[in-house]
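REVIEWER CHECKLIST
Item 1: Sequence provided? yes
Item 2: Single chain? yes
Item 3: Sequence as submitted:
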Amino acid sequence: MRKLINDSRILYGILFIGGMLCLAFAAYQTQYSRLVAAGNRAVAEKRFDTQAYTQASRYWLANQKLLLYNQGVLNYEAQNFSRAADLFRQAYQTDNRLLRKRALYNLGVVLLALEEPEGAAEMFKEALRIDPSDPEVKFNLERLYHFVLLEKGGQAKASLQQAPGLHKEEGKGLGKEGAGRPSPRSDI
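Item 4: Structure as written out by the authors:
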């Protein structure tokens, strides 16, 4: 009987320690989640000085590719297109099909902003290979072919400037999303 009581105390002790470890891990991961949420809010509020994603990437078991993707969206919104392209290139090297498709699509959008229509078309095609039914990717690839890639010679660049939503307005940079300008997806 005494042995049974000792064995049950040991078992309860092990369960107690295991429970405490689980609580500690949950608290640790909660802080990671808060940092990611803070980064997402900063993007939505167009505050581009946030370091939340960088801080979150230091956490154990952090989803590095997703954080690279989020940093790419942040840099795109800040119009730091070359940095956004680098981040999306790193983010699309993942086994997660949804993240890969979104990173490829966003890289295509960035390459359009950098006036690299051929590269953008390749990224849109890669995204369509992952999900052939994605209407937004199809639309942007068709639009790209219609306004840019079907043109010959020196008219291609002029055509890119004339595409709805891609022309520069007086001092305002590129057109707005409502004018037909593709925007990156940030809904992962």
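Item 5: Key structural point noted by reviewer: Confidence is low (pLDDT under 50) at residues 164-179.
Item 6: Recommendation: ____
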